[in-house]
């Protein structure tokens, strides 16, 4: 087989491995590199193997270890109370003093209730 064909197979297998790994909650870069160098064996292991167990946007309950939403206050499996994990939106927020909705720190008007807010 020519070098160009082997390189093309490696690139395609690496891209597929990357996407499958990310979909299963695994490290896409590592699995993509492995699929590039050993395409058939690693792709079979990745596709047939189990996922990481915790989908994106979820975390494990500290009481029963079942997957729960990051923003959950109570585990739906064991009913244990958990502290919600704040998901970063990329900018700082604060609650509106009138309605309690999240708003940007530098906002002067709440987008939820429309009332003027002072610093």
Summarize the helices and strands and which ones pair or pack.
Elements: H1 3-23, H2 28-37, H3 39-48, E1 58-60, E2 67-69, E3 93-95, E4 102-104
Helix pairs in contact: 1-2, 1-3, 2-3
Tag the structure with descriptive keywords:
two-stranded antiparallel ribbon, 3 helices, 34% helix
Q: Report the biggest beta sheet as strand number plus sense, adding barrel if it closes.
A: 2 strands, antiparallel
Helix count equals: 3
Class from helix and strand fractions: alpha+beta
Cα radius of gyration in angstroms? 22 Å
The proportion of strand residues reads 5-15%
Helix content: 25-40%
Query: Shape, please?
Result: elongated
List segments where confidence is low: pLDDT < 50 over at least 5 consecutive residues.
none
Tell me how many strands there are.
Answer: 4
Q: How many structural domains can be distinguished in the coordinates?
A: 3
Q: Summarize the helix and strand pattern as letters.
A: HHHEEEE
Sheet with the most strands: spatial strand order:
1-2
N-to-C span: 69 Å
Name the average pLDDT. 81
Keywords: Membrane, Transmembrane, Transmembrane helix
Pfam family, one: DZR
Protein name: Conserved domain protein
Domain DZANK-type: 61-114
Describe the 3D structure.
The protein has 119 residues and is α+β, with helices and mostly antiparallel strands. It has three domains: 46 residues, no CATH class; 34 residues, no CATH class; 29 residues. 34% of the residues lie in helices and 10% in strands. The protein has a two-stranded antiparallel sheet with strand order 1-2. Strand 1 and strand 2 form a beta hairpin.
